[in-house]
Amino acid sequence: MDFQRFPVIPGEHVLDMGCGAGRHAFELYRRGAHVVAFDIDQGELDGVEKMFGAMRLEGEVPEGATARTVQGDARDLPFPDDSFDKIIASEVLEHIPDDMSAMRELLRVLKPGGRLAVTVPSWLPERICWALSEEYHTAPGGHVRIYTRAELEAKLKSLGFRVDGHHHAHGLHTPYWWIKCAVGVNNDGNPLAKAYHQLLVWDIMKRPLPTRLAEAVLNPVLGKSVVVYFTKPSTPGRPEDVAGRETADAV
Q: Which residues contact 147 (CB under 8 A, 6 or more apart)?
């Protein structure tokens, strides 16, 4: 997520839908939001809740910020209409067979004028992973589809969202997953996979200039994820009206 393109203001109510281990939820909390970390996996949420507590104890959280976890199904979010100023749905829609139901729920609980950031695996890197390993995409809870960016945008536009732009991320991660698929997804002891994983951890922790430059070059072509930003229009309208306004704005 690029928080320059998706700014979070202290006091905003933000949903991390499909939060997993909580990476985005933690950053939202640090930025002063009222955060809801939502996931179907209670085990993941238990770890997120512990980290929220540790962040409070360490003084990493601005005064007034709040954070909580909620377990449930993305196709039936347990929140009232128009609950959130912003929503992040990162690397989750590709896991949901009925993705349109989940997208409708995102529209329902987002406030008019609110913003949505969605990330899914990029088409080309993901297609190669599927070709290299059946295990990669057939494991329980795994990926059930490969999106093109056009498909993702078209589905959300059909519900009434406006597209606000996109970019790719994690170009350095793509070769790692190709290696994992080639040697065995669960073969964590493979020397090449271990060495590349250590490189990624070093990059995340130190963010040295050479790897930052390499990722900037790789992202547009081999970025593991595509990030797309959307807005829920402030005034209700049919999807075709929203599309018409987008065309007019472009002209």
A: 93, 94, 120, 121, 123, 226
DSSP SS3 for 118: strand
Reading the block at residue 7, the tokens are: 């700014």
pLDDT of residue 169: 96
Strand pairing report for 34-39 and 66-71? parallel
- The Cα–Cα gap between 123 and 239 comes to 25
Residues 231 and 116 sit within 8 Å (Cβ to Cβ): yes
In which residue ranges of the chain is pLDDT below 50?
A: 238-251
> Could you give the CA distance from residue 213 to residue 208 in angstroms, rounded to a whole number?
9
The CATH architecture one would assign to domain 73-232 is: 3-Layer(aba) Sandwich (3.40)
Domain boundaries, the chain: 73-232
- CA separation (Å) from 159 to 51, 145, 184? 35, 20, 39
Query: What are the tokens at 145?
Result: 């589809």
Spatial contact of 9 and 234, defined as CB atoms under 8 Å apart: no
- Per-residue pLDDT tens digits for 69-102: 999 999 999 999 999 999 999 999 999 999 999 9
Q: What pLDDT does residue 235 have?
A: 75
